[in-house]
Amino acid sequence: MDLDVFVTAHRTEWDRLDHLLRRGRRLTGAEADELVVLYQRTATHLSLIQSTAPDPLLIARLTQLVARARATVTGTRKASWRDAAHFLTTGFPAAVYRSRHWWVPTAVLSTLVAALLGWWIGTHPEVQAAIAAPEDLRAMTRPGGEYETYYSSHPAASFAAQVWTNNAQAAAMCLVLGAFLCLPVIGILFLNMLNLGIGIGLMSSAGRLDVFLGLVLPHGLLELTAVFVAAGTGLRLGWTVIDPGPLSRRTALAQQGRAALGMAIGLALVLFVSGVIEGFVTPSGLPTWARITIGIAAELAFLAYVYILGRRAVRAGDTGDLTAVERSAEVPSAA
């Protein structure tokens, strides 16, 4: 496309749209109809320029023009409790369900890595010696040792808040850093699985793996699932940089980025529930079977939430992204 010819052909329409927008509410009925038509045309022009002849200055001008026109045509609306309810019952579960092909394999592979690391550490004394001195290992794994007292070392409310903050930060890092070609997400996942594998290995070598699992499973099932969802979403975002598909890389990243932002909000709520369990249930005096049952129930509730509400929302056409009216107009850049 010859950009100069294109600009010459459509400059008058853009100037006319700008003029109508400056008039604000003082438009006749015919002028309001004209503004809508010009807005649609300009949005299409913007998509064409972005996909075929990107010019930063022209794109900046048309992006601003389209944004102003969209605000005028669609009007502004305030977020309401109905929006929050829609997000929790439709948008978030739909986004998680649509990304299941990323986070489910991530969960399976990560769990396998943690199990293998735990087996390796637990069956190789020289590896354990490289982790810490023998007396330090005994202090960590003995009855009443650091692994057990960790969950009751602080008041439950403050501990739950601290856990929630730390896990939310880890999930956010997976979501944000995924755009860097997936590599940071893989690193974050490995560190988490390494820490879990060390605990499994050391406690199993001390013959106390059942105690360790009894402490980890109540909150860990839901907590790790949230981390896996965040990591899977981050990996999907990183792969979009590598292969944006039929859309331009900018448009594809915008779509995945908006979904990741919504995912971050939803996962913060999931991790809050996990933090409450870790702060109040894990160190409680409940028998091990009762604590594990609570953890399994929380995990099954989340999976049902995703696979029932999410599948239903996706079948109804919800993607977890903005609606078509709220998104910028776009055209494919490849077949």
Topology diagram in text:
Elements: H1 3-23, H2 29-52, H3 56-74, H4 81-98, H5 100-122, H6 125-131, H7 134-141, H8 146-149, H9 156-177, H10 183-205, H11 209-242, H12 249-281, H13 288-315
Helix pairs in contact: 1-2, 1-3, 2-3, 4-12, 4-13, 5-10, 5-11, 9-10, 9-11, 9-12, 10-11, 11-12, 11-13, 12-13
What can you see in these coordinates?
It is a single chain. The chain has 335 residues and is mainly alpha-helical. The chain has 13 helices and no strands. Helix 1 runs antiparallel to helix 2, helix 4 packs across helix 12 and helix 9 packs parallel to helix 11. The C terminus is likely disordered.
In short:
The protein has 335 residues and is mainly alpha-helical. Helices cover 79% and strands 0% of the residues.
Spell out the key features of this protein.
mainly alpha, 79% helix, disordered C terminus, 335 residues, elongated
> Uncertain regions: pLDDT < 50 for 5+ in a row?
322-335
Which percent bin holds the helix content?
over 70%
* Strand-residue proportion: under 5%
Largest sheet: none
How many helices? The count is 13
Give the CA-CA distance, first to last residue: 17 Å
Shape: elongated
Rg, Cα atoms, Å:
26 Å
Q: What is the helix/strand order?
A: HHHHHHHHHHHHH
